[in-house]
Amino acid sequence: MIAKEYQEILEKELNRSTYLLLSLVVASLQLFKQVKLEWKAHGTAITNFV
User: How far apart are CA 4 and CA 11, in angstroms?
Assistant: First the structure.
């Protein structure tokens, strides 16, 4: 997640809905990165699932 210092600054500067949306985007990107790494480790191409 975002470093603690940046998280505190963002919470103060952004309104609540914008902060929650940003957090959701960051979490989604981290999830997609993890899934991509796991697929790569298992030798499965993403195109096989489309």
Answer: 11
